[in-house]
Amino acid sequence: MAPRRPTQGRSQVLVKPPLPRLHAITDERIARRADLDDIARELANGGGSDLAFHARGRELSGREHYDLAVRLSNRQTVRLFVNDRLDVALAVPCAGVHLGHGSLPVDAARALNPLWWIGRSVHDLAEAEAATLSGADYLVVGPVFETASHPGRAPLGLETVNAIVAAAGEVPVIAIGGISAERVQAVRQSGAYGVAAIRALWDDAEPAAAARRMREWLL
Fold first, then answer.
1. Is the pTM of this model over 0.90?
2. Which of 14, 42, 136, 137 has its Cα between 20 and 30 A from that of 130?
């Protein structure tokens, strides 16, 4: 959805596009895959306008992160989010940014582009309350289940997700960590607005089908 144009005698009204419910997040390994473009195309076919790509990779160089964001921005139906690197987000058209603990505060990011969705990662109720008070537009909560991405970290479980959803009020909660198509329905029933995944989407033998299954359980 494009921003509304100002009418005669009225101030401009800024309108964010809808927040997608399914988020496919990369890491360094995925960013450097030779078949990245092919998998992204398949995920876009399955996820459609309900899918967002997150250009993420903490160990990527600035140029690698930029190239990744450019490649992921080539899907017309999929919205791009850039994680951590606000310089990359300014250089590549994107719908939002996701801030880590070492990133700029929410209000500083919002000053760069008031139409961005600005998210925060949280791992417990206290962090969720702090992020909500800071003005975050959405929260990524996890790990909900055990996940290879964070070995040794105790999963939050669905009851904690439900408590965070209640504390966040109208701020959408995206669940991450051990998410699979079989778990999406339970996550939605806990109150989460949507889900995010890495391996369950990028490493599936049939990426389009994986994205489609998750999308159907989310709607």
1. yes
2. 14
Rounded CA-CA distance 39/60 in Å is 20
Distance CA 80, CA 198 (A): 15
pLDDT in tens, 29-82: 999 999 999 999 999 999 999 999 999 999 999 999 999 999 999 888 899 999
112-123 tens-digit pLDDT: 999 999 999 999
Report helix angle 36-47 to 207-218, nearest 10.
30
d(C-alpha 35, C-alpha 204), whole Å? 13
Tokens encoding 132: 């909500």
Please write the tens of the pLDDT for every residue from 88-114.
999 999 999 999 877 889 999 999 999
Q: Identify the three-state secondary structure at position 167.
A: helix
Backbone phi and psi for residue 86, each to the nearest 5 degrees, phi listed first = -70, -25
pLDDT at 7: 39
- Before 172, cis peptide (omega within 30)? no
